Amino acid sequence: MKIGFIGTGVMGTGIINNLLKNNYDVTVYNRTKAHAQPVLDNGAKWADNPAALTKKVDVLFTMVGFPKDVEDIYFGENGIMNAARAGQYIIDMTTSKPSLAQKIGQLGDEKGLHILDAPVSGGDIGAKKGTLTVMIGGHKEDLDHLQDLFMTFASKLNYFGSYGSGQHAKMANQIMIAGTMTGMTEMLVYAKAANLDLEQVCQTLQSGAAENFSLGSYGPRILKGDYTPGFFAKHFLKDLRIALEEANKMQLDLPATKEAKHLYEVLVDQKKLGNDGTQALIKLWWK
Amino acid sequence: MKIGFIGTGVMGTGIINNLLKNNYDVTVYNRTKAHAQPVLDNGAKWADNPAALTKKVDVLFTMVGFPKDVEDIYFGENGIMNAARAGQYIIDMTTSKPSLAQKIGQLGDEKGLHILDAPVSGGDIGAKKGTLTVMIGGHKEDLDHLQDLFMTFASKLNYFGSYGSGQHAKMANQIMIAGTMTGMTEMLVYAKAANLDLEQVCQTLQSGAAENFSLGSYGPRILKGDYTPGFFAKHFLKDLRIALEEANKMQLDLPATKEAKHLYEVLVDQKKLGNDGTQALIKLWWK
Predict the structure, then answer these.
(1) Where is the 3-hydroxyisobutyrate dehydrogenase-like NAD-binding domain (chains A, B) (predicted)?
(2) Nearest C-alpha of chain B: how many angstroms from A247?
(3) Prediction ipTM score
């Protein structure tokens, strides 16, 4: 079974390395070839564009930045969909629009492809360790067929239903994280102003009803002044925009998520800090 | 050592039962005597007012609803401070204003009392199990003296510094929880509208980067339609008001916490659901 992978960012690199470790034959494509060098050094092969890659493989994963990038690699010049042949498995792991996942899925049905939307949670550490949580939409039997392959980089596979429902589950995930990130940030801002020992505050809160993954994972990084991206602020803002666009379509008002989106807009669009990690939100208060 | 306890609510009852189990001699007072019946049945004695109780005991705990109630029992008619004698230990575990804790502490210093502010985290379950997290301000040696007593109902004692700093740490805790509660609520609202299996969504999110105590503890209660208070919505609103008042004094703008306060105001003040648990926030969307 030949595997293709488009997108060698933080997450993609971790996943590809796990596939290589499990002796899969992996060919990759990335817009900026230099960013693929680490996985090429580990034994991955290179293809010159999405179409060329699609023609070489049985199973193709994609994990790029924005819905616009997904549109480009699936439907653009030298795109996946024109090159794909019946029977191929094509899985988008980008966190992207549920409506786009539905569009790809329906076109895939017409062409006899096996399509899944499969965004993940668990961050850079999960990708590296192979312990990602995957949220999946599409035909259940297609997931069953790829179970072993997924488990080389995931510890949990969660099937949610038809095309786009993996993306919807991921949106729910990001809405939850919007709460933990804004809560953690404002908590630290308050605690610092009140002259509390911040390390002790983090430890104390983690042992009670305020406990959460963001605090445990990003609290210590903030206290060390480490804003390197486990997850890019610009990508999180993209996710919140998709979530609120979808909520809007469903006539839902989600004011706390809106406020989180607004804060990340200030960070990314005004302060131009989108290439920092999500924990850089605290820079809106701390200099 | 004779123990006094004022306030036999959900939390107080759990703590008193743990003191009784450890064979402490406990006398209690509560504004509504009927609410003290469960601990009286378990062997606690009764005093007719805060002053009468203060005169009988060596160590006095207070855990009431609002800062106004703390003012009343400490400074009102038949209040604690007029009845207290040098050498007594008096600990307020109500989540209350840092400035009020400072006032009680300074007056206590003048009178030769040992004062601590010691709000807790861990909810009704923590109080019952004796696994509360305590956040403490005051003189460190007074905490050291009471270590064993505290450990009958707590699993962690966290000393933060001078009078009021226990309350400040608790405010930080509540700001964090404002994020997890609004995030969880809006996440469930979104997931339900997207027709996802909500139980599976909760399980999936708890295994990844969205994981948090509120989701683990209150998610299942919401799915069962259980809005009984582990923690009263009206008390959480009180906490958020104190936190934002303190933030304001420190010239901090905390927009996500403000939005959370606004949502709980709608729940408590407009919808009159303050006697529900904090998880009832979802009733702003679900009928």
Answers:
(1) 164-284
(2) 7
(3) 0.94
